[in-house]
Amino acid sequence: MKIGIDSFTLRELNLDPYQCLDYANKRGLEGVQFGGIDGLSPNRDVGELLNLKDYADSLGMYINVSVNSCNPLQFNQSEDEERTAISRAIQAFAKTGWHELRSVISHSDERYKHPVSWNIHLSKSIDFLRSLRPVLEECGSRINIENHGDSTFDVLHIVEAVGSDICGVCLDTGNTLVNGEDPVQAARRVAPYTHMTHIKDGIVFFSANGVSRQGKAPGQGNVDFASIIAILHEYNPDLPLSIEDHKWIFEFPVFEKDWFIPNSDLTPYEFGQFIKLVSVTEQKLASGELPAVDVYEAIPYLEQMEERIASGAEHLRGILKKLNLQSGK
């Protein structure tokens, strides 16, 4: 298992893809996962993409890539136009040798606040992904849906409905917390279908309207990466572990009826495990073991980025070593 970074982590540095690879390589990281806002567009000439891949190969680094959202209710153009655009992206990336592709269904909190029922979002997304089967089969590619604003229950439902040969999971370990899931149980739920990751940590604590999550570097929050990595490795020994780190506090009203209705798959036991994490955090905040939320959040991310990335990578390396799964660097 290789440890890399998601380019969104580096967004404030305004690096091009080559610079992202250089940045990661100089810090002992082994790959970069590119999202949709960092310049690695499938509209680039295939020759340019191949040159980038050759450069990454020369450094011994992996590249993961993304396509646009597969939720028709998120499209900025007609469904046919978006299907054509994503199909071209799949083909361009396949020619470069990139077949595991990240995408999303939810950008933010549509699961709770969009005027259209969330179940309709899911059904339309399933239909759209199914419509991409011919090009995905032709290219030997797969679209991996990230649990972004949605839960791992949602993503699992999509994968099972579409077919795991062309649809999988990009597991964001920290995003599990936003839907009241236990990160370890969530990982176990989707592990058989996980081909990409966002390795993210955070703490959860009680706030004015429920519970909030504050982003932390891997190893500094509530996510049990030792258990999660062991689970994921069982199903995919070569799974890349791409750190996605950022600040921001997200609040979610876990005690309100409108929050629970879309989370009908969440069992009382798992929600109890989630609240247990909240309790642990509250004790650490009260004792001073963790810095006060507002004080920590007030520090600009760029001032902490280097330390957070280094600390997170070291934490993951320690786990891989302990599990005898360490990579080459």
- CATH homologous superfamily caption: Divalent-metal-dependent TIM barrel enzymes
Structural Rg? 19 Å
Compute the number of helices. Answer: 13
The structural domain count equals 1
**pLDDT average, as an integer?**
94
The CATH class turns out to be Alpha Beta
Global shape: globular
Percentage of helical residues? 40-55%
Please identify, by name, the CATH architecture: Alpha-Beta Barrel
CATH topology: TIM Barrel
Helix/strand class: alpha/beta
Major sheet, described briefly? 8 strands, parallel
Order of secondary-structure elements: EHEHEHEHHHEHEHEEEHEEHHHH
Binned strand content: 15-25%
Q: Would you report the number of β strands? A: 11
How do the strands of the widest beta sheet line up side by side?
7-6-5-4-3-2-1-10
Low-confidence stretches: none
- Gap between N and C termini: 11 Å
Task: Give the SSE map.
Elements: E1 3-6, H1 17-26, E2 31-33, H2 46-58, E3 62-66, H3 79-95, E4 100-104, H4 110-113, H5 118-131, H6 133-139, E5 142-146, H7 152-162, E6 167-172, H8 183-190, E7 194-198, E8 201-207, E9 210-216, H9 225-235, E10 241-243, E11 249-252, H10 257-260, H11 268-287, H12 293-297, H13 301-322
Parallel strand pairs: 1-2, 1-10, 2-3, 3-4, 4-5, 5-6, 6-7
Antiparallel strand pairs: 8-9, 9-11
